[in-house]
Amino acid sequence: MKPFENPIYVTRPLLADLADVNQELEEIWESQWLTNMGAKHQKLEAELKKVLRVPGISLFNNGEIALIVSIQSLRLLGEVITTPFTFPGTPHVLAWNNITPVFCDIDEDTLTLDPEKIENSITAKTTGILAVHVYGMPCHVNEIQQIADRYGLRVVYDAAHAFGAEIDGVPIGVFGDISMFSFHATKLFHTVEGGALTFNSPHLKQRIDLLKNFGIKNEEEVVLPGINGKMNELQAALGLINLKLIDAEREKRQKIVDAYTQRLAGIPGLRVFEIPANVRRSYQYFVIRIGEEFGCSRDDVYTEFKKYNVFTRKYFYPLCSDYSCYRQLPSSAPENLPVAHKIVREVLCLPLYGNLTLDDVERICDILKSFKK
Ligand code: T4K
User: Which residue has the CA at smallest separation from atom 30 of ligand 1?
Assistant: First the structure.
């Protein structure tokens, strides 16, 4: 089998027609309004509120600052329970808020926080749960809410991968106190860099909007120590264009996911990460799990793929609990996180983006099958 002529990456950004981008830029130039909640920002916020079907929304310059602000806005302190199986950005927002992350194990099917293990992690210092809809797979939202209500905890969802996801027709952004969406270039919907917080409580909007703009209430009043988390007009303009393209992008990704799923069925030791039928997918990642029976380890598959010019990703290896900055925490002990430790050696994200052709998918599958021993 021949290597691909050009590199095939795990993802490629959705790129709008440059003529449409120029049109938006002309309008911005004309207005001479570049940032600080201008017309494009307001329009995108209103449109995303409808698309995500949420009662409240606030746009940000990136997902990470949004997540930091979500923790600030709920005044969380002490300890917050979170998953080790995520991007570093998740536990880091706790550290940035002087909160100790308490890592709790995940469950084998959803790869999200195992609700049966959350209660064991609760102490007198616990103020919240920061759960991640990893790969766009919804967390056990009902069980998590029940635990939170029982112990008086706040719930924040890192929904960085979950744009457009739904559970039984209910949009993902309405669960918990706050959800964070990332609009980074690598996401299905993007604004180059960007993000949003969604929430149910109308009181949160005012506090979050203050926190993202230095706490400035008006020209003479600064009411809290905020940060600069504002999305600018160029980002918002690109978001407005990309919003029109995402349905087509989702359809293309759906065909790719279907093709992978069909071609990779029935291979001993190789499992496609399944999303339940009651979940509307975000089509953010296509994930496989490589077990012993495959005869070639996940790490070897990853390395061998490179020889064919295919750059898969081991998202989210290593576990956050193994980073040098968190390793010393009691909750980072491997005995506390057996499922996460097993999963993190098995998962591999294969290329998924609208412009990947079905021929490319076929070739990628054939290459993968050739690694089986
Ligand atoms: N919470 C979670 C659970 C997250 O996954 C993330 C971000 C956050 C919080 C924080 O949200 P943001 O502050 O980022 O909004 C990428 C993204 O940069 C990051 O947004 C994302 N999660 C993470 C899962 O993936 P890297 O370090 O893997 O990116 P990079 O540069 O290696 O890009 C991946 C591939 O994408 C490249 O191999 C090629 C392709 N690519 C990338 C870029 C930037 C392009 O084709 N064009 C591009 O412009 O983190």
Answer: 186
Does the Cβ of 74 fall within 6 Å of ligand 1? no
Write out the two tokens for 40: 């494009």
- C-beta separation of 239 from 20 below 8 A: no
Instruction: Give 60-106 pLDDT, tens digit per residue.
Output: 999 999 999 999 999 999 999 999 999 999 999 999 999 999 999 99
CB atoms within 10 A of CB 216: 15
Q: Which of 15, 87, 286, 316 to mutate to test the pocket of ligand 1 (most atoms within 8 A of CB)?
A: 87
Can you state the angle between helices 202-211 and 63-73, rounded to 10 degrees?
120
Pairing outcome for strands 154-158 and 310-311: unpaired
Look up the pTM and report it. 0.98
Tens digits of residue pLDDT in 178-228: 999 999 999 999 999 999 999 999 899 999 999 999 999 999 999 999 999
